[in-house]
């Protein structure tokens, strides 16, 4: 072990050093508590053998300082003293001493007490290693749990959020919009002629289209927006704080992104339906249904276009007149 001797008596220091080195320990020696404290602060010793009475800083003060170092490696402290009174030993223990050696020094007793120190220090090292291993395991488990939690709410192909997570978030945002009277728009996006694309080029090529759609959506999102794969070739985007005008503009930007994208096999377009929250929409399902109806009209009008749900009402009124 690395042993530090703090002793102002040169004869006693010489006897201790020679004995300790003879039995294989690495030894440092200083003449007072201040010098000893400097070595302890550098974690230079595992065991301190300190005289009780020393100049500048005595053994008890040195012990107390050492025990204040809560986050540092443990230092096993043996106090050298000729004091044999029970009160003196108790005072030393309260100061933080682990053991005592009487003066004059008994070599056999020194060896025995160092064996005790070594057992305790080895146990503490093992305990620290186990604690560190448990902390590593805890960190790994936390990371794994976080990954599993993310997997549970994500679409495995595109990496976007899945339908279940989207519906949960939609209901929460809808309740917030109803409570605060803030706008909320939803876009439903369908890849045009996706089945024929799959039939012509195969499912791997179709999967690549879906992943490209996901990248387009991620690149177009604002901070509060939420995109998800709703099912098959259908995607949805929730846009908090976005009114009818903003919702339609966002839909047009997405449609143009599809047009400008360099697709591998052939051009790909999208039909988009937009719905904006109104007081009559009591549930998320009603808002989705409104966007879905707008999407259906985009498809009926020839695809590759954006329709807002409000347009359906306008057209219906025009047809009645």
Summarize the topology.
Elements (H helix, E strand, L loop, with lengths): L1 E5 L3 H13 L3 E5 L2 H9 L5 E5 L7 H9 L8 E6 L4 H10 L3 E4 L4 H46 L10 H18 L3 E8 L2 H8 L1 H18 L5 E6 L2 E7 L3 H17 L9 E7 L7 H17 L5 E3 H12 L1
Parallel strand pairs: 1-2, 1-3, 3-4, 4-5, 9-10
Antiparallel strand pairs: 6-8, 6-9, 7-8
Helix pairs in contact: 2-3, 7-8, 8-9, 10-11
Summarize the structure.
The protein contains 11 helices and 10 strands.
Q: How are helices and strands ordered from N to C?
A: EHEHEHEHEHHEHHEEHEHEH
Beta content: 15-25%
The gyration radius over C-alpha positions equals 38 Å
Largest sheet: 5 strands, parallel
From the N-terminal CA to the C-terminal CA, the straight-line distance is: 100 Å
CATH superfamily of the largest domain: Reverse transcriptase/Diguanylate cyclase domain
> How much helix is in the residues?
55-70%
SS content category? alpha/beta
């Amino acid at each position: 072990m690395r042993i530090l001797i703090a002793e102002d008596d040169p004869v006693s220091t010489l006897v201790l050093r020679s004995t300790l080195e003879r039995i294989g320990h690495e030894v440092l020696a200083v003449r007072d508590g201040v010098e000893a404290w400097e070595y302890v602060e550098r974690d230079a010793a595992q065991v301190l053998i300190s005289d009780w009475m020393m100049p500048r800083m005595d053994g008890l003060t040195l012990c107390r300082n050492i025990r204040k170092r809560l986050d540092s490696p443990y230092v096993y402290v043996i106090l050298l003293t000729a004091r044999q009174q029970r009160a003196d030993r108790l005072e030393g223990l309260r100061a933080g001493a682990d053991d005592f050696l009487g003066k004059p020094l008994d070599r056999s007793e020194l060896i025995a007490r160092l064996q005790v120190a070594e057992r305790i220090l080895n146990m503490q090292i093992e305990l620290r290693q186990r604690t560190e291993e448990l902390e590593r395991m805890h960190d790994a488990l936390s990371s794994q749990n976080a990954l599993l939690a993310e997997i549970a709410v994500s679409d495995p192909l595109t990496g976007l959020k899945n339908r279940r997570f989207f519906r949960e978030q939609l209901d929460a945002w809808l309740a917030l919009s109803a409570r605060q009277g803030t706008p909320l728009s939803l876009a439903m996006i369908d890849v045009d002629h996706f089945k024929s694309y799959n039939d012509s080029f195969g499912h791997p090529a179709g999967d690549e289209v879906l992943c490209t759609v996901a990248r387009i959506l991620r690149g177009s999102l604002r901070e509060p927006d939420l995109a998800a794969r709703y099912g098959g070739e259908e995607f949805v985007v929730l846009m908090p704080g976005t009114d009818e005008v903003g919702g339609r503009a966002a839909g047009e930007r997405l449609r143009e992104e599809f047009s400008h994208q360099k697709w591998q096999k052939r051009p790909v377009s999208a039909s988009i339906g937009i719905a904006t929250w109104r007081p009559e929409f009591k549930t998320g399902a009603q808002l989705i249904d409104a966007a879905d109806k707008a999407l259906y009209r985009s498809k009926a009008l020839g695809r590759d276009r954006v329709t807002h749900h409000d347009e359906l009402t306008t057209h219906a009124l025009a047809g009645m007149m």
